[in-house]
Amino acid sequence: MPWWSNELCALRTRARVAYKAWTRVGDAEHGSRFRLAKATYQRELRREKEKSWSEFKLPASILISGSPTTDPIKIANAFPDHFFPVPPESDSTHVHTKLDPEVEFYKVEYVCPNNNSGSRLCPTLDKRSNQNTMACDCPVRINLVYEKEEGKFVIRKSVLEHKNHPISAEHVKTYARKRHMVEESLEFAKQALVVGAQPTRLRGLLLKQYDSHLISKDLINLKQSLTGRLW
């Protein structure tokens, strides 16, 4: 900036120091000092800007296509071509060919529900020891990539050995996507929760009577949605 100087820098610093002192003390005297320092800095800044612009001179002539000219019309018409030239034609070698319209994704990954990918609870397990979470570093995953030439997905990586969690039909039923309730059991659960049933005892009753594999957290969430409170 051609108008900036060491004097302006000192005035700005003085205004900032006065502002910090005013916010720290908060009395009228320090407020007046800050307003005076700020007004002085802004006044000198405007003066230096006006002085700089008044001393700015355009050249007598400008070269356009190698020829000097002072015609303002030619200069104005030449500005767009100089500052906004026509972009070169794009190189088609880097353009990606679109996938088959029937293919929604180029890459697909399936992971075990007990995998930590995308889990927001894992970093806080040490602070929330009672927090229920399925994440336990299970490495099972299958990665598929769509091969256009073959017209199908191809497995690129697969790890099929589960670790760190039980493997059984009963365990799978506790997955969120498996914890569905039939209409009859859902209505029964709602009525019981509204009148004050304990989620832990209700869970056992639903499992015995309707074979509903819910966890207590599901029932607590359902109770909160019905009554607006946890207990």
Radius of gyration: 36 Å
Q: What structural class results from the helix and strand content?
A: alpha+beta
Choose one word for the global shape.
Answer: flat
Total of DSSP H or I helical runs spanning 4+ residues: 7
The overall pLDDT average reads 77
Question: Strand-and-helix sequence, N→C?
Answer: HHEEHEEEHHHH
The share of residues in helices is 40-55%
Strand order of the largest sheet: 3-4-5
What does this structure look like?
By secondary structure, the protein is an alpha+beta fold. The protein folds into three domains: 50 residues; 67 residues, no CATH class; 58 residues. Helices cover 43% and strands 11% of the residues. The chain is built from seven helices and five strands; from the N terminus they run H-H-E-E-H-E-E-E-H-H-H-H. The strands form two sheets. The protein has a three-stranded antiparallel β-sheet with strand order 3-4-5, with no helix packed on it. A two-stranded antiparallel ribbon has the order 1-2. Strand 4 and strand 5 form a beta hairpin. The longest helix is centred in the N-terminal third of the chain and has 28 residues. About 6% of the residues have low confidence. InterPro entries: Zinc_finger_SWIM (IPR052579).
Present the secondary structure layout.
Elements: H1 6-25, H2 28-55, E1 62-64, E2 67-69, H3 72-83, E3 107-111, E4 141-147, E5 152-159, H4 169-172, H5 183-194, H6 199-210, H7 216-227
